[in-house]
Amino acid sequence: MSRLSLLLFVILCVMLIVPVASSQVNPLVTVRVDTDFVVGDAQLPPGEYIFMLDSHTNRVHIINTDTRKTAVVFVQERVENSTPVDNKLVFQNDGGQSVLHKVRSSRMGHVYDILHGTDVTELE
Fold first, then answer.
1. Is the terminal CB of the chain with fewer CB neighbours within 10 Å at N or C?
2. Does residue 119 sit within a domain?
3. What does the pLDDT read at residue 15?
4. Per the domain annotation, does 50 fall within a domain?
5. Confidence at residue 63, expressed as pLDDT on a 0 to 100 scale
6. For the chain, how many structural domains are there in total?
7. pLDDT of the chain along its 124 residues, tens only?
8. 9 in helix, strand or coil?
9. What is the rounded CA–CA span in Å between residue 114 and residue 100?
10. Does residue 74 fall inside a structural domain?
11. What is the dihedral of CA 14, 19, 20, 21, to 10 degrees?
């Protein structure tokens, strides 16, 4: 019985550790947003937000730390002439709504362009 218990324990550990080890979710920025905004299909309220990058799927998880409201969007990493020295969100007014277009992360040293559907005009 003890060999079976040990074997089951090892299998359980492998099943729990492998998904965690293969996940590459990194914090991009923590910022305060002072207005309602749209990202993807989500309308998000003002508040403190954490942006987390899943580098395996090129998705950013956006989490409001006050309300726990979340959104997940696909991003494309942009190469720009200069590395971001601060954290910044880039919005554009589209039809009376603030639409999130870019996340500049000094921590990661990259700019991430939010991928939108055809109903949102992309920034150049």
1. C
2. no
3. 62
4. yes
5. 93
6. 1
7. 577 777 777 776 666 555 544 557 778 889 999 999 999 889 999 999 999 988 888 899 999 998 989 999 999 888 776 777 788 899 998 888 999 999 988 877 788 889 876 555 555 5
8. helix
9. 7
10. yes
11. 80
Domain residue limits at 16 = 2-114
Q: List strand residue ranges (DSSP E) for 2-118, in order.
A: 25-33, 37-39, 42-44, 47-54, 59-64, 70-78, 88-94, 97-105, 110-114
Q: What is the pLDDT at residue 106?
A: 82
Tokens for 11, please give them: 């299998």
Q: How far apart are the first and last CA of the chain?
A: 65
pTM of the model: 0.71
Which whole-number Å values give the CA distances from 46 to 1, 9, 49, 63, 64, in the listed order? 57, 46, 9, 11, 8
Distance CA 102, CA 124 (A): 11
Bridge partners of 89, per DSSP, are 103
Tokens matching residue 50: 């954490």
Instruction: Look at residue 80 and tell me if it is in a domain.
Output: yes
